[in-house]
């Protein structure tokens, strides 16, 4: 427990963190990766270059300071991050390293304003928060290892099959090299994949949503090749998976993780909205819904550039054909002439609230959505404008968490 004096000191730094938080986290990562370059490959390089990782950490530190007297308020965020840490293989001995460089970054950025009293309070607070993470993650490692077909760290998997789903998305079917059973998972969860890229000193780890249903003898991930937008840094691992990894090659996987999952106790209508490669957890959810809740009404809405970018379309349409409670709708931003000729989409342009309302008859249901940040902001703001309460809006960020306001 933190003393009242420590709590008050931490809360007094909230306005400072609001202004200087990102500068502190930028300096933190610079220090951390200079001293421990082996840790860099736990992180997505593109997110680092775009500043998304730094902003997400700054937001987390700010939230911790704001709620330092009621840390239970940030418990959902702690559990979400702990899932990612367990999936990445983060260990207790790494927390003191992070604490050392975070406190040093605070001192460097704030200068004389970071008094010994403030640094002491933050050191104490960091110790409490780190202990919470270590405890939660320890339980996660144990539960992961003890579940049927489970394991605690990384396990060798073979690329059993590699399917090109669209111009930019490829599916990888992964089976365990030891041919043993594999852990079940909840629709919406992800795995971490660890690869050794030729010429790179350290391994790389990335997280990808599982895009099929649990209970199969394989895991499937469907990966977008992130090198088509010159304004965005290329994704080193995604490009390697597309161009360098072949059927029969071996990669290393964590057991499934993540808390973006279906509420199986809810029987109300459910709407699944996705943009681009954000459809991967939604397809998994659709498989689960038609299998475990065959009477539940499902509306599956997907937005993408055009038919050449539209992955897993035939699979989703086949599920809808077999299960009449499922309705599907496609929104193409820039349909091709072939798309127009085949009448392959239901809306041209971008997803908006009137179109969602034309497809979904009621706000009394659950809404799950995933995709690029602009897409998610549009969906979230549309649902808020429609009066969908927060408890019925569920979403997942690909990469570091951001703001949808």
TrEMBL record:
Q: Where is this site: Influences the redox potential of the prosthetic heme and FAD groups?
A: 84, 396
Q: Per the record, where is site Involved in heme-bound ligand stabilization and O-O bond activation?
A: 29
Catalytic residues?
95 (charge relay system), 137 (charge relay system)
UniProt domain FAD-binding FR-type: residue ranges: 152-263
Per its UniProt record, what SUPFAM superfamilies does this chain match? Ferredoxin reductase-like, C-terminal NADP-linked domain, Globin-like, Riboflavin synthase domain-like
Q: How is the cofactor bound?
A: Binds 1 FAD per subunit.
Catalysed conversion reaction: 2 nitric oxide + NADPH + 2 O2 = 2 nitrate + NADP(+) + H(+); 2 nitric oxide + NADH + 2 O2 = 2 nitrate + NAD(+) + H(+)
Q: Which cofactor does it need?
A: FAD; heme b
Which GO-annotated molecular functions does the record name? FAD binding; heme binding; metal ion binding; nitric oxide dioxygenase NAD(P)H activity; oxygen binding; oxygen carrier activity
Q: Which residue intervals make up region (Reductase)?
A: 149-405
Might you name a Gene Ontology BP term for this protein?
A: response to toxic substance
Its EC number is: 1.14.12.17
Swiss-Prot/TrEMBL keywords? Detoxification, Dioxygenase, FAD, Flavoprotein, Heme, Iron, Metal-binding, NAD, NADP, Oxidoreductase, Oxygen transport, Transport
* Pfam families to which the protein is assigned, alphabetical: FAD_binding_6, Globin, NAD_binding_1
Q: Which domain of life is it from?
A: Bacteria
Task: Tell me which residues bind FAD.
Answer: 190, 206-209, 397-400
PROSITE patterns for the chain:
FAD_FR, GLOBIN
UniProt similarity note: Belongs to the globin family. Two-domain flavohemoproteins subfamily. In the C-terminal section; belongs to the flavoprotein pyridine nucleotide cytochrome reductase family.
Q: State the protein's name.
A: Flavohemoprotein
Which gene does this sequence derive from? hmp
